[in-house]
């Protein structure tokens, strides 16, 4: 069983970017069963910017599933942004999941935006001022909803989609001082509470691509400035060989990393 | 003899650096969190990557308008959007 997952985050669309991703996106059906967007679709989270996202990422021949990011919250227009995206056929996750029937099996995707807080031994605690407790409880609540969504899905393969990072590994390259604003270990804990095959996130523009949770789940930072291409493609499965890679189109993904 | 700081002088570089960093995030015309501001001997260097040439120009315009006397060097790139040429297999 192999499921082909394309993913990118932090595309920060506005009118000046519309059309830049589209040529590569048109190749998606040749190389992926689904496209995941790891949040920060817009610059300021306005309805007008969401329409740019809908134009660029809507109407593709593969299902598109997204979470929102912190930028998508900036103008307090989240309901309008979500509606524009959903009207364009994009599935927006926040504390819930979706199961897609792919050629390689049923792919379950659970998603939350997530939040900061930091990582084990160097994290914020639910203690002190109300503002501090609210900060940490936002993270904890988000992680709890991610864990519950992951555990609720009936599928053959499970993927976690967040904007904030669940591990420090994929933040390497960012200043250590800002790690608590880039992710939290509770998200990793939630991912490890279910048989997750892959966790995908964005947000850390100066981070690195690869990491793993303490429980051994592969984590990939797909922030656009990190991957430096329209999207990355992951073939996830238990039996991979060159025969399964070969049908991929001429101009798109061709070689495996191995 | 004690030397007193001239309080009429330009603000210390560290505050300028902090202000530029916040300006780039909080100004609605830019809203970029991924630009790094580095102090060098002769100039402040801006580097990072943005989604369009227009955004790079906006960043330079904003910073030079706000700090006309600060020498700025820019090394901001526009992120490529080509289709991937390799996949990653995750058995």
From TrEMBL, chain A:
Gene Ontology CC: one annotated term: membrane
InterPro entries membership: Calcineurin-like_PHP (IPR004843), Metallo-depent_PP-like (IPR029052), Metallophosphoesterase_sf (IPR051158), UCP008292 (IPR016538)
Every Calcineurin-like phosphoesterase domain range: 3-79
GO molecular function, one term: UDP-2,3-diacylglucosamine hydrolase activity
Domain of life of the native organism: Bacteria
UniProt GO BP: lipid A biosynthetic process
Keyword annotations: Hydrolase, Metal-binding
PANTHER family in the cross-refs: PHOSPHODIESTERASE YAEI, TRANSMEMBRANE PROTEIN WITH METALLOPHOSPHOESTERASE DOMAIN-RELATED
Protein name: Calcineurin-like phosphoesterase domain-containing protein
Species: Micromonospora noduli
From TrEMBL, chain B:
Domain of life: Bacteria
Protein name: BON domain-containing protein
């Amino acid at each position: 069983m192999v499921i082909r997952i394309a993913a990118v985050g932090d595309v920060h669309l506005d009118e000046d970017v519309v059309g830049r991703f589209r040529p590569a996106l048109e190749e998606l059906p040749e190389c992926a069963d689904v496209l995941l967007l790891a949040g920060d679709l817009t610059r300021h989270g306005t309805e007008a910017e969401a329409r740019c996202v809908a134009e660029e990422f809507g109407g593709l021949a593969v299902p598109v599933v997204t979470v929102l990011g912190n930028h998508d919250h900036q103008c307090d227009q989240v309901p309008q942004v979500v509606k524009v995206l959903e009207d364009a056929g994009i599935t927006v996750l926040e504390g819930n999941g979706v199961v897609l029937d792919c050629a390689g099996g049923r792919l379950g995707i659970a998603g939350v935006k997530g939040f900061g807080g930091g990582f084990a031994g160097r994290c914020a605690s639910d203690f002190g001022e109300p503002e501090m407790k609210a900060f940490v409880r936002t993270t904890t609540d988000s992680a709890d909803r991610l864990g519950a969504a992951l555990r609720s899905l009936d599928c053959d393969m499970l993927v976690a989609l967040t904007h904030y990072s669940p591990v420090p590994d994929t933040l390497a390259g960012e200043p250590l001082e800002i790690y608590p604003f880039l992710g939290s270990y509770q998200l990793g804990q939630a991912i490890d509470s279910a048989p997750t095959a892959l966790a995908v996130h964005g947000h850390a523009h100066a981070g690195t691509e690869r990491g793993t949770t303490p429980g051994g789940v592969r984590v990939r930072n797909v922030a656009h400035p990190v991957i430096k291409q329209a999207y990355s493609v992951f073939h996830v499965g238990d039996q991979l060989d060159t025969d399964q890679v070969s049908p991929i189109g001429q101009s798109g993904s061709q070689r495996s990393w191995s | 003899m004690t030397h007193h700081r001239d309080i009429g002088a330009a603000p210390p570089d560290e505050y300028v650096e902090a202000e530029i960093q916040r300006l780039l995030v909080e100004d609605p015309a830019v809203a970029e969190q991924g630009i790094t501001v580095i102090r060098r001997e002769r100039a402040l260097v801006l580097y990072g990557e943005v989604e369009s040439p227009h955004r790079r120009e906006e960043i330079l315009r904003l910073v030079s308008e706000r700090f006309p006397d600060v020498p700025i060097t820019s090394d901001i790139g526009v992120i490529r959007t080509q289709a991937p040429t390799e996949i990653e297999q995750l058995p």
